[in-house]
Amino acid sequence: MNPAGKVAVVTGAASGLGCAVAAALLEAGARVVLFDRDAERGAAVAAAAGDAALFVSVDVTNEAQVRAGIDQALARFGALHICVNCAGVPDAAKTVADGKPFPLAIWEKVIAVNLTGTFNVLRLAAVAMTRNEPENDERGVIVNLSSGAAHDGQMGQAAYAASKAGVIGLTLPVARDLADQGIRCVAVAPGLFDTPMVAGLPKKVAQAIVDRMVLFPRRMGTPAELAQLVRSVVENPYINATCLHIDAGARMSAR
Fold first, then answer.
1. Catalytic site includes residue 160
2. Cα separation of 205 and 165, whole Å?
3. Is the separation of the CB atoms in 35 and 46 below 8 Å?
4. Class for domain 7-195+223-243, per CATH?
5. Residues 70-76: contacts with CB within 8 Å, 24+ apart?
6. Whole-model pTM?
7. Per the residue annotation, which of 55, 77, 107, 160 is the catalytic one?
8. Per-residue confidence of the chain (255 residues) as pLDDT tens digits?
9. Cα dist. 92→3, 153, 155, 162, 163 in Å?
10. Are 83 and 142 in contact (CB under 8 A)?
11. How far is residue 181's CA from residue 134's CA, in Å, rounded to a whole number?
12. By three-state DSSP, how is residue 61 classified?
């Protein structure tokens, strides 16, 4: 699908990987609706992008807010063709620590945002996509961010790894569900990336992690590189029902 002139929803778009994806789609000529809970930052990103962008304050776990956000996208731009789910939380805890079990509230939050929130947005976005006139038999593209942790979860990442494995697990059945509507569904699993989640690490600590885990090139990925892959998925109509890894051959160690 050519992004030019199309309408995209990007979740988690106020910062990090989501912001980079939104910027790449805008550069490709798409009109982009940015979903995020950070209203101040999200509004600033949209304002800097001009009339081609719209920010909507959305909690992806809230059905009413997501419905309202998609309604605003349709009211502003008239259609929805692309959905990229980048919203996520990395909250961690060990299964047992100091004799206490993993706090269930952390588990429920991580699963709610990373897995249920992803499905909540994509299912409602897909309804809007079914109303599009097909372009080369295609009505829409859904891209969901998983993680290398889905396969190589580290200590403390039981909830995070499970949520990201779930994103991979839903890819094929969702693609099968939507195939007759001309809608693709693809997962992308980034490895170690230079985002606000790791910005607080001392440089020596960050480089030690890279040296221990990354094959080549020996550095963290940039948000622009992830965004480039997402754009390629959107543009290539033969990529469907799979998970693409972008990680420089990284394999996570236990800690």
1. yes
2. 27
3. no
4. alpha beta
5. 70/9, 70/124, 70/125, 70/128, 72/33, 73/7, 73/9, 73/33, 73/128, 74/128, 76/33
6. 0.96
7. 160
8. 999 999 999 999 999 999 999 999 999 999 999 999 999 999 999 999 999 999 999 999 999 999 999 999 999 999 999 999 999 999 999 999 999 999 999 999 999 999 999 999 999 999 999 999 999 999 999 999 999 999 999 999 999 999 999 999 999 999 999 999 999 999 999 999 998 766 666 677 778 889 999 999 999 999 999 999 999 999 999 999 999 999 999 988 888
9. 36, 11, 9, 12, 12
10. yes
11. 9
12. coil
Where are the domains positioned within the chain? 7-195+223-243
Q: What length does the chain have?
A: 255
In the structure encoding, which two tokens stand for residue 83, read together?
Answer: 């959905």
Q: Which residues contact 174 (CB under 8 A, 6 or more apart)?
A: 122, 142, 185
CA dihedral 140, 248, 34, 149 (to 10 degrees): 90
- What whole-number distance in Å separates Cα of residue 234 and Cα of residue 164? 21
Q: Is 41 exposed, middle or buried (0-12, 13-18, 19+ CB in 10 A)?
A: middle
| C-beta separation of 11 from 60 below 8 A | yes
Any idea which residue has 């622009």 for tokens? 224
Return the SS3 of 55: strand
Task: Please name the residue that has the structure tokens 């349709």.
Answer: 74
* DSSP secondary structure string for all residues of 221-246: BPHHHHHHHHHHHHH-TT--S-EEEE
